[in-house]
Amino acid sequence: MRVTCTVNGKELEADDVWEGESLLYLLRERMGLPGSKNACEQGECGSCTVYLDDVPACACLVAAGQVEGRSVRTVEGLADGDTLDPMQEAFVECGAVQCGFCTPGLVVQAHDLVERVPNPSDAEIRESLAGNLCRCTGYEKILDAVRLAAIRKADTRKAQAR
Amino acid sequence: MDFLRPQTWADALTAKADDVDAVPIQGGTDVMVEMNFDVHRPGALLDLNPIGELTTWEQLPDDTLRVGAGMPYVRIIEELGDRLPGIAQASRTVGSPQIRNRGTVGGNLGGASPAGDLHAPLLAAGAVIEVESAARGTRMIPAADFYVGVKRNCCERDELIRAFHVKPAAGPQYFSKIGTRNAMVIAVCSFSIALYPGEKRIGTGLGSAAPTPRRAYAAEEFLAGVLDWSGPLDDRVVARFGELVADAASPIDDVRGTADYRRHALAVMAKRTLGWAWKDLGNNGKAA
């Protein structure tokens, strides 16, 4: 079947999509967007987290056909050209990255948290990231990154409000 | 494989009648796992996402809440948490934020896993499941009659789950779940309680404790008979309630826990949730 959807602001079309395939496969293998990672394929690890109509979802658990006419935003769509989103920037600065495999999912999920909750508590950060697994570091630097990005985004909002 | 995309509820019913093996998909959080692992490859997927009415809720003239089967957990928590506290508490324990953004009570009901988190609070709250077929119209099935076996509900092959109906909480409600961490775990076992001070009765629901989710009828009857609704809780009453809840279970030993552990944990959860609910009743007569 053919699937047409908006991905990172661009309308894209894929042909010969198998009816049982996931949004994750569609993004990675047909649309050339390998940012969302394929790991557990059962919604346990969060590495494939993307926005589906502005709501974070595990791309591995969405059937490709379900995104017909809808909009998807992947980790590739968070940056503005060469300018990283403050969440991406903070992950780099805080060293919240080791092998990097879980990073795209964590960045998207954390991005959503800070959009919804401008000044999240540690408990809110932990709950929000409970579905994103990192197997090579701890989570401390990830928490640092989310806190830093939240502060910077709040400062930007204040500056814009002035 | 077919991918069916009905645009209206009536078209969905027709599609299901035409292909009774078509698997309905809404959030996809269970269906896609089976597909990804090749556990189950259905002849057709019936995508219910385009049918907007499934993701809405309304309050009927008699105050009953009619909640669309496709409402994701996150919206149940946000929009109905004050009126359906037990169901909202259970929703908060489902998976992770990503799963709660997509997963639905309709999916929990369709899957009918004994470990589904929403069954216990639906049972305790006396929910009624609205199912429909193109040929025979609507059936209203009390949650207590809905589950008929391990991962089996009483829906006919041409029926789709449309909504659940439930009264707003008439008193305190609680949900309690045992797991190895606070997220992304299937319950070792779970328990839900709902107090109805006006009717002087209580509702219960057990999860992961029997081949199907079930109520602890003897425990409910016992409490209805002995509770002094205007006074403090008697410790002996609480202890007996816990025993009767444990007796209602017929759990198995499996990788997540032993049958003995599950019975013990159910008794503990029953006693604790009764205590919490009673405390709320004393404070303000409403759920926390």
From TrEMBL, chain A:
<keyword id="KW-0479">Metal-binding</keyword>
<dbReference type="InterPro" id="IPR036010">
    <property type="entry name" value="2Fe-2S_ferredoxin-like_sf"/>
</dbReference>
<dbReference type="Pfam" id="PF00111">
    <property type="entry name" value="Fer2"/>
</dbReference>
<dbReference type="InterPro" id="IPR036884">
    <property type="entry name" value="2Fe-2S-bd_dom_sf"/>
</dbReference>
<dbReference type="InterPro" id="IPR002888">
    <property type="entry name" value="2Fe-2S-bd"/>
</dbReference>
<keyword id="KW-0411">Iron-sulfur</keyword>
<keyword id="KW-0408">Iron</keyword>
<protein>
    <submittedName>
        <fullName>(2Fe-2S)-binding protein</fullName>
    </submittedName>
</protein>
<dbReference type="Pfam" id="PF01799">
    <property type="entry name" value="Fer2_2"/>
</dbReference>
<dbReference type="InterPro" id="IPR051452">
    <property type="entry name" value="Diverse_Oxidoreductases"/>
</dbReference>
<keyword id="KW-0560">Oxidoreductase</keyword>
<dbReference type="InterPro" id="IPR006058">
    <property type="entry name" value="2Fe2S_fd_BS"/>
</dbReference>
<dbReference type="InterPro" id="IPR001041">
    <property type="entry name" value="2Fe-2S_ferredoxin-type"/>
</dbReference>
<feature type="domain" description="2Fe-2S ferredoxin-type">
    <location>
        <begin position="1"/>
        <end position="78"/>
    </location>
</feature>
<dbReference type="InterPro" id="IPR012675">
    <property type="entry name" value="Beta-grasp_dom_sf"/>
</dbReference>
<keyword id="KW-0001">2Fe-2S</keyword>
TrEMBL record, chain B:
<dbReference type="InterPro" id="IPR036683">
    <property type="entry name" value="CO_DH_flav_C_dom_sf"/>
</dbReference>
<feature type="domain" description="FAD-binding PCMH-type">
    <location>
        <begin position="1"/>
        <end position="171"/>
    </location>
</feature>
<dbReference type="Pfam" id="PF00941">
    <property type="entry name" value="FAD_binding_5"/>
</dbReference>
<keyword id="KW-0274">FAD</keyword>
<dbReference type="InterPro" id="IPR051312">
    <property type="entry name" value="Diverse_Substr_Oxidored"/>
</dbReference>
<dbReference type="InterPro" id="IPR005107">
    <property type="entry name" value="CO_DH_flav_C"/>
</dbReference>
<keyword id="KW-0560">Oxidoreductase</keyword>
<dbReference type="InterPro" id="IPR002346">
    <property type="entry name" value="Mopterin_DH_FAD-bd"/>
</dbReference>
<dbReference type="InterPro" id="IPR016169">
    <property type="entry name" value="FAD-bd_PCMH_sub2"/>
</dbReference>
<dbReference type="InterPro" id="IPR036318">
    <property type="entry name" value="FAD-bd_PCMH-like_sf"/>
</dbReference>
<dbReference type="InterPro" id="IPR016167">
    <property type="entry name" value="FAD-bd_PCMH_sub1"/>
</dbReference>
<protein>
    <submittedName>
        <fullName>FAD binding domain-containing protein</fullName>
    </submittedName>
</protein>
<dbReference type="InterPro" id="IPR016166">
    <property type="entry name" value="FAD-bd_PCMH"/>
</dbReference>
<keyword id="KW-0285">Flavoprotein</keyword>
<dbReference type="Pfam" id="PF03450">
    <property type="entry name" value="CO_deh_flav_C"/>
</dbReference>
